């Protein structure tokens, strides 16, 4: 995928109550403004990368890009599981991510246990891949240190402008 690594940022919105948190794997959802800007070559499936909530530490993450059942599978969703134990939910906060690599396509599972096992495999793969020197350096990218200033950018800034700023560094 030519568009990787792909940088994006957006407010964490409420998902569709599919109970990810109950599975022990909460996923922070991006709004349509972020999802709609995804380049065409970023296909659905599971990705690994780096994520930062607000001005917090940069953590490893896994992200699922899938078809959103709420919109009868006509719209995509982007859901990030940050590999970090947070004390509180962070709805409304700015989430900054860089998608670094692709793990696998989406698939359906016969049981909840099989789904959870697959996600835990993804998390282990993400952790290992992100320790590789070529991937760990993205953790230090200026994109994350600029998260503080850009969170004060006026919300009227057009999505396309902020998108080009994000990927134009
Ligand atoms: P929703 O359907 O609203 O997305 P989830 O059950 O997927 O609900 O939980 C997601 C929310 O959990 C996030 O929006 C965030 O506020 C919170 N959260 C807490 N810890 C994490 C984490 N490690 N990764 C992602 N989200 C987390
Ligand atoms: Mg979620």
Protein model, in words:
By secondary structure, this protein is α+β, with helices and mostly antiparallel strands. It has a 6-stranded antiparallel sheet with strand order 1-6-3-4-5-2. The longest helix has 19 residues. It is globular. The site of magnesium ion (MG) has 5 residues, from loops.
Question: What is the secondary structure topology, with strand pairs?
Answer:
Elements: E1 6-11, E2 28-29, H1 32-35, E3 45-53, E4 58-67, E5 76-82, E6 94-104, H2 112-130, H3 133-136, H4 142-145, H5 147-150, H6 159-167
The site of magnesium ion has 5 residues, from loops.
Residue windows where pLDDT falls under 50 for at least 5 positions: 151-164
Morphology: globular
Order of helices and strands: EEHEEEEHHHHH
Total helical elements? 6
Count of DSSP E strands? Answer: 6
Mean pLDDT level: 87
* Gyration radius, in Å: 15 Å
Distinct small molecules = adenosine-5'-diphosphate, magnesium ion
The amount of helix comes to 25-40%
The main β sheet shows up as: 6 strands, antiparallel
> Strand order of the main beta sheet, please?
1-6-3-4-5-2
* Proportion in β-strands: 25-35%
Structural class, please?
Answer: alpha+beta
| CA distance, first residue to last residue | 19 Å
């Amino acid at each position: 995928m030519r568009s990787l690594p792909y940088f994006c940022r957006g407010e964490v919105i409420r998902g569709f109550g599919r109970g990810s948190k109950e599975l022990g794997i909460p996923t922070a959802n991006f709004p349509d403004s972020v999802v709609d800007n995804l380049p065409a070559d970023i296909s659905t499936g599971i990705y690994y990368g780096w994520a930062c909530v607000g001005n917090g530490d940069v953590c490893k993450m896994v992200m699922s890009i899938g078809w959103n059942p709420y919109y009868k599978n006509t719209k995509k969703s982007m859901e990030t599981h940050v590999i970090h134990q947070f004390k509180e939910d962070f709805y409304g906060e700015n989430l900054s991510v860089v998608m670094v690599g692709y793990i696998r396509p989406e698939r359906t599972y016969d049981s909840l246990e099989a789904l959870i096992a697959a996600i835990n495999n993804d998390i282990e793969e993400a952790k290992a891949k992100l320790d590789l020197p070529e991937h760990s350096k993205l953790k230090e990218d200026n994109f994350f240190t600029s998260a503080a200033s850009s969170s004060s950018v006026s919300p009227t800034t057009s999505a396309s402008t902020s998108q080009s700023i994000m990927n134009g560094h």
